[in-house]
């Protein structure tokens, strides 16, 4: 194994070359920065350490994990944050639609964890409050990422804010170890409180969501060196289907988020976890997934008719 590591995910020679080179560079920085004795300096009071270059500037972060099950989720989110042009296995851009930072898991004899490329930023969303100057499409990108991956820790401290030269706040989601949730009710989605979340998805984002392919994604993760569990696939498949159907039916990020949070009080039966709870769990995962998708299709179609007084296939009136 390269660098003497016992394991890496992704394996550097099994991903497109530009991605492999970017991840390899992060590993080299880690090797150079790691003291022969002792540990890397902490970035904060959590499980995150700084990896600095020869100038003393932070180039990436080293994260350790309490539970083994979390270790490969962050690299998986990075790999599946496909660029707008298409699937990352074909379009080897180092950054995808949402700008999830390049991430690699490794295990050595001494330690294990993830290296995450450091992203320069001005603040986090929780520090900006009412001063956030962003675009609806930035919120839509967060919606796609958080819903698709079932992120249960999408609070406003886990979105970086970087103001561009035009004064627009670009939003970058980070910290994805609590993704691919074990249930179907998310904990927090801070962007549902932003007015722009009620804007319709752009045509660019509609196409992106329509082209998502869970089977291809799982095959890509396996090719990159991870034996994906059936539990992971089950939750990823259902969350992705919920997102795709919601966007197809012209729901806004706000509506999608509220249903995923289980916070739609008017008709609670349309909340995602309530929908999935009606699916057939008695005949194995494949039947459960098929049943859950059918229930999602049926329930969201009913939701559109009941809440928007609009039949599927009929565009909303302006």
Features:
globular; single chain; five-stranded antiparallel β-sheet; 12% strand; three-stranded antiparallel β-sheet; 2 domains; nucleotide-binding
Report on this model:
Belongs to the PI3/PI4-kinase family. Type II PI4K subfamily. It is an enzyme of class 2 (transferase). It holds the Pfam family PI3_PI4_kinase. By secondary structure, the chain is α+β, with helices and mostly antiparallel strands. The protein folds into 2 domains: 2-117, no CATH class; 123-308, no CATH class. It has 10 helices and 8 strands. Helix 7 (230-248) runs parallel beside helix 10. The radius of gyration is 20 Å and the shape is globular.
**Helical amount among residues, as a percent range?**
25-40%
Low-confidence stretches: none
Morphology call: globular
Q: What string gives the helices and strands in order?
A: EHEEHEEEHHEEHHHHHH
How big a fraction of the residues is strand?
Answer: 5-15%
Biggest sheet, spatial arrangement of strands:
1-4-5-3-2
How would you sum up the major sheet?
Answer: 5 strands, antiparallel
- Overall pLDDT: 92
- How many domain modules? 2
- The number of helical runs is 10
């Amino acid at each position: 194994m390269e660098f003497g590591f016992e394991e890496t995910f992704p394996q550097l020679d099994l991903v497109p070359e530009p991605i492999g080179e970017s991840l390899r560079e992060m590993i080299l920085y880690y090797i150079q920065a790691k003291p022969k004795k002792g540990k890397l300096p902490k970035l904060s009071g959590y499980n995150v350490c700084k990896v600095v270059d020869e100038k003393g500037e932070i180039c990436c972060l080293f994260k350790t994990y309490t539970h083994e099950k979390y270790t490969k989720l962050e690299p998986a989110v990075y790999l599946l944050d496909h660029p707008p042009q298409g699937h990352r296995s074909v379009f080897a851009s180092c950054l995808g639609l949402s700008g999830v930072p390049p991430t690699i898991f490794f295990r050595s004899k001494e330690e294990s964890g993830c290296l995450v490329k450091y992203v320069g930023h001005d603040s986090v969303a929780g520090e900006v409050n009412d001063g956030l100057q962003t675009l609806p499409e930035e919120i839509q990108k967060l919606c796609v990422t958080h819903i698709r991956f079932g992120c249960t820790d999408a609070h406003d401290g886990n979105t970086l804010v970087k103001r561009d030269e035009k004064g627009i706040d670009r939003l970058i989601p980070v910290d994805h170890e609590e993704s691919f949730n074990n249930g179907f009710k998310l904990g927090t989605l801070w962007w549902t409180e932003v007015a722009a979340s009620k804007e319709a998805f752009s045509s660019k984002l509609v196409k992106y969501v329509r082209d998502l392919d869970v089977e291809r994604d799982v095959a890509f993760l396996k090719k990159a060196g991870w034996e994906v569990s059936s539990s992971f696939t089950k939750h990823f498949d259902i969350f992705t289907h919920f997102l795709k159907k919601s966007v197809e039916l012209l729901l806004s990020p706000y509506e999608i988020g509220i249903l995923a949070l289980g916070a739609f009080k008017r008709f609670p039966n349309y909340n995602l976890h309530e929908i999935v709870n009606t699916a057939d769990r008695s005949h194995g995962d494949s039947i459960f997934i098929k049943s859950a998708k059918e229930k999602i299709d049926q329930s969201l179609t009913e939701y559109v008719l009941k809440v928007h007084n609009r039949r599927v296939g009929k565009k909303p009136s302006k």
